[in-house]
């Protein structure tokens, strides 16, 4: 075990640092000259993907958060309506399936009982076909799906998923960009976005350099009982993922919220004991986010902002910290912003002395209901 962990104290930390490699492997042989190569989704995939007019995403846990990001991309770039649901809900519901809908299952293990049950249930409901994004080639999910795109994260041992998430985002971006191209995304924009995607391993490597800074910040969370994570748009799922990581391994109660909902509830909880962590990308929602942050500041909340390095935020007089990272543009920003949040959860858990790789009550793969 110690041999496999190498220089790292925990598998989770090793896996966080493996992300540049894992994402590069996931993109390897799938992009050339700023284009997605043909047939990477399997032979005959073209014919099926061209007919897609709706996508139903189903997943659990961290994989569900990856799917939530993909929904923003699918509708924003490919103009394809997309629904997403956790598998345990989808499987027991009389879902109405729109015409020409693709069933998209996302799972690291490919053995999650609810996700498999949803796939099997979906088969009865007239989907065009099923598409799996998965990390385990010999899994049930891969065997039972029509089309497959493997993430190449390698074995993930830590129960809290890290490299599986960022490789899922890379794989989902490939699928979305292909669907977007088929549905008329302007050539120039397509080329630029594929290029942005190819820079993801480098951007993640840059974000990992924040580790010492984040380790220091983690000390300010050790005695907290609650934390609130905020994001907007495509970075809202990043807030959910940041909160999930923190609660899974440090046992601090954490919630992820779309920043615009702050005033509809969570603001009532904000005081000097409730740290607020916000993701601030450089996009059209920045100004809105800033006013949400102002609301937190006015209530004496401690504010930790992870911002794109081009974002200008006045941090004078703010309790908390401003952490800057080159997020590499709107497409890959969710994957890049996730990295400091993973590091934060990790370091807080280490300081609290929890079992980071094997958190209490949780399993790596939930193969029974
Ligand atoms: C468990 C794991 C999570 C994972 C989820 C879905 O809850 O602890 O890390 O995200 O299952 O697993 P899957 O293998 O389907 O992605």
TrEMBL record:
GO terms for molecular function: carbohydrate derivative binding; glutamine-fructose-6-phosphate transaminase (isomerizing) activity. Residues 45-185, 217-359 form the SIS domain. The active site is at residue 364. Keywords: Aminotransferase, Cytoplasm, Glutamine amidotransferase, Repeat, Transferase. It comes from the Bacteria. It catalyses: D-fructose 6-phosphate + L-glutamine = D-glucosamine 6-phosphate + L-glutamate. Its EC number is 2.6.1.16. GO terms for biological process: amino sugar biosynthetic process; carbohydrate metabolic process; fructose 6-phosphate metabolic process; protein N-linked glycosylation; UDP-N-acetylglucosamine metabolic process. GO terms for cellular component: cytosol. It is found in: Cytoplasm. Catalyzes the first step in hexosamine metabolism, converting fructose-6P into glucosamine-6P using glutamine as a nitrogen source. Homodimer. This is Glutamine--fructose-6-phosphate aminotransferase [isomerizing]. It comes from Dokdonella immobilis. The gene is glmS. The chain holds residues 242 to 610 of 610 of the full protein.
